[in-house]
Amino acid sequence: MKRIVFLSGGIGSWAAGMRVMQKYGSEDIINLFTDTKKKNDGHPHRGEDQDLYRFLNESWEYIGGDLEWISVGKHIWQVFEEVRYMGNTRIDPCSRILKREAARKWIEKRFSPDEVTLYLGIDWTEEHRAKKCRDYWKPYHVEFPLINEPYLSKEDMCIWIEKYEVNRPRLYNMGFSHNNCGGFCVKGGQGHFYNLLKQIPERYSYHEAKQEELFLILGKRVPFIRRTIDKQINYLSLKEFREQIEKDELNNKETLIDIMDIGGCGCFNDI
Fold first, then answer.
1. Strand pairing partners for 34?
2. Are 6 and 268 in contact (CB under 8 A)?
3. Where does the chain have alpha helices with state H?
4. What CA–CA distances, in Å, run from 250 to 9, 227, 243, 247, 255?
């Protein structure tokens, strides 16, 4: 029986893999990493954060087994252009094509459902996502090692990896809730993008420019940052969101954004 750990480059999937190793050993483990850009693409803001690759390379051998590194060969903005759709909090063609479908095709080509078990890094705080994942991956069997006791927080997992003298992913130290897509995610909320703007402004600028390019290609503006004022929902582009923050700061005015609105990544979890 092969055991495929969906290794995302984040601390949760690493901890899930470690629990699989502790229970079954390393011999039959395959760590499957789906990259959101071409391997060896050196662009600093397209796809994953460079520190993710550092963390992945330093941490996966503690799980053991094999590492399979796959890529569709395109990045998220190419996906949006090809499907002619701006991803948002509800529909994510980026993770569907670059993550879920890529992984499923790889698995189906090599294993029948009775030859393999799949493992995802959903933890005890996200148990509500498990049923959708099981339904999506049928007829393959899926397990979630972090749902079980002893329950671990993200900080617990980071302390765990640091016992092996491996530094946690730098994005966690910068206040991001996940370590995927370089801190960018169309499912992110106001607080998420405020943090990206303040922590990595050059990366925010890259995505802002790509979004404006996509709007021109689509022939319409379809932003995804949702903001509610006086019970009225409106949507802001990355450009509009940044300009509003800069305007408020220039006028010493309190910025009307919800810092606690994080949202964010769920590439394998939100189907």
1. 70
2. yes
3. 11-24, 50-63, 76-83, 93-95, 102-110, 130-137, 154-162, 170-173, 190-199, 201-218, 238-250
4. 38, 21, 10, 5, 11
Phi, psi of 118 (to 5 degrees): -105, 145
Phi-psi region of 96 (alpha: psi -120 to 50; beta: other; left: phi over 0): alpha
What six digits make up the tokens of 125? 């705080």
Q: Where are the alpha helices (DSSP H) in 111-260?
A: 130-137, 154-162, 170-173, 190-199, 201-218, 238-250
User: For 186-235, how does the pLDDT look when each residue is reduced to its tens digit (9 = 90+)?
Assistant: 999 999 999 999 999 999 999 999 999 999 999 999 999 998 777 888 89
Considering its fold, how many domains does the chain have in total? 1
Which percentage of the chain shows pLDDT scores above 70? 96
Reported pTM = 0.92
Q: What is the edge-to-edge ordering of all strands in the sheet holding 116-119?
A: 66-71, 29-35, 2-6, 116-119, 141-143
HSE value, Cβ hemisphere, 13 Å, CA-based, for 181:
24
For residue 227, tell me if it sits in a domain: no
Residue 80 in contact with residue 97, Cβ under 8 Å? Answer: no
Question: Is 211 part of a structural domain of the chain?
Answer: no
The alpha carbon of 25 is separated from its chain's Cα centroid by a whole number of angstroms, namely 27
In a domain, 123, yes or no: yes
Residue 249 lies inside a defined structural domain of this protein: no
CATH of the domain at 133: 3.40.50.620
CB-CB contact of 228 with 216 (8 Å): no
Bridging pattern class, strands 29-35 and 2-6: parallel
Per the DSSP assignment, residues forming a β-bridge with 28 are: none
| Range of the structural domain that residue 31 is part of | 2-174
